[in-house]
Every structure is written in structure tokens, then in C-alpha cells.
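Hi P.,

Sorry for the delay on this. The queue was packed all week, but I finally got your sequence through. Input first:
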Amino acid sequence: MALKIPGVGLSEEEKRIYPMGKIALMISLDMLRFKVEKALRQFGISEIQTIGAKIVALTSKNFTYNDIELIIIDVDSPDFNAYEVIANLKKGIKSAILPILAIGNRSDASIATQLKTLGCEDYIPKPIDDMILSSKVLQLLRERKPNTEIKTHIEEKSKLETLKLAWHAEFETGIQAIDEEHHEIIKQYQKLYALMKDGLGHDFYEDFLAFLSSYVISHFENEERIQQEIGYPQMDVHKHSHSEFKEKLTSFIQDKKVPPSNQDLLKINLFVKDWLIHHIYVEDRKIGAYYKSQK
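Then the structure:
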């Protein structure tokens, strides 16, 4: 039987407006998972979906659950990289709108800041207090987006996912220096794609990595300088995404095989395409919108 604690739980009116969906648990260790499930159930949260540790990474890239309202993830799980999982969830059509509550061993403020930058709504350090956990979960359920907003978000993401990767007006930020550099990287990507279609991508692989290495240094520096000049308020978050791109590119270069395999070509193709569409179309256009608002 659920405990009745004043101020904790959904009211009857809230249950009518927001029917309770399932909460997904991405937790490897059974003991921790049992504790979280017990804490939630004693406060009336009984719809819980455990996603097996072995398929968490795969699930995060192709989130097909339709009735999940919130995700709880253990960032210290030994069986998957929680940071990559969170990043993947925030790119997915269905999962990007879902609130994520992270739990972990560290208690310093920096980890909470880092996770919120990745897209988590909140962070709770271990050992988990039942009342704090359940109260936070219920708070996030109350604050989640209405169905109309979720539908709109999914429609927008669907458009973004099918967007053809060729330079056109929708990629423009309105800042000439940034747009010219974006045009160049898209041109280089198109060259790689065309060669891959003809079975010649292996010959261009090293040149493409060399281009990217040079490009990220000059372009990111220029973009960050412009953000500083116009006083862009989200500059720190934007720089963080630049750092992530550099780290991933470095791993490609360090793991480079000569000659590259078909899998190597596919990985760099999808990585750059995902970056270009998401980062330019979504994040960089925010810089342009802010720039126009200040003129």
C-alpha cells in the first residue's frame, strides 16, 4: 500500500490531466535497482520499466518505448557509458523530450552541472534517500511537457532527421563568417559521401580526417570569438559541445586504420552528418537568432 505523505504524490486532478506513464530505469546493479523500485512503489509509483544493462546503449539510440514519462539512470553503471547514453537519448525523436534524473556516487556540485549541461533535469547523489528520490520524481512528472508539446517536438525532430545534407537557406545563421565555414564542411562531407557511393571513400578518408582536424581549430575559434563579441549567453554550453566533437574526432584519428574499413567510413560519415544536422541546424542557428535580436 502506498504511503500517504502530505505534499508528496499526484493529486486526483493531476492524475486526470497527466495519466501516470512508466518510469524507465537504466541501472546495472540489482541491489540499487531494487532500492529505487521499492522507494518509488511505496509512494504510489508502480509503473516501472527496467531496461536491461546489456541493451541500454542500443536502446538509447533507438528509443521505441511509447509510454515512458521519465528516465532514471545510474551514471556509475559499470555495464554502459552513461554519458554517451544520455547524449543519445537527447538526440532521439521520442526520447529527447523525456526528463532524465541521474543518480551517482559523486556529491560535488560540478557533476550535477555537467549532467545538466548534457540534458539531465536533476542529479541525486548516493546513498539514495527514499523521500528525496520519490519527491523529485513526482516533481519532474508534474513539470513534464503536455502531450501537445511532445507531439510538436516529435514532428520537428522528424523533419530534422530527414533533412537533406546539402547547403540551403535553412542552415543559414545570418552571420556571414560562420555560414561560409559551415558551407565548406558540408561541401567536404558531400565529397566523402559521393566517393563512398562509388566505392572510393577509402582513398579520401585520411584527407577528410586531416581537413576536420584543421577545420575544428579555426572554425571553433572563430565561432567562439563571435559569440564572445556579441555576448551570447549560452557560450559555455556551446563550447562544451565543441569540446565533445574534438574528443570524438581525436578518437577517430587515434584509432585510424590504413586502409580504413567500410565500418570506419560509415562511422565517420554518420558522426559528421549527425553533428552537422544537429549542431548547425539547431545550436548554431540559436547564435544567429540571438545576433539578430541584438541588432
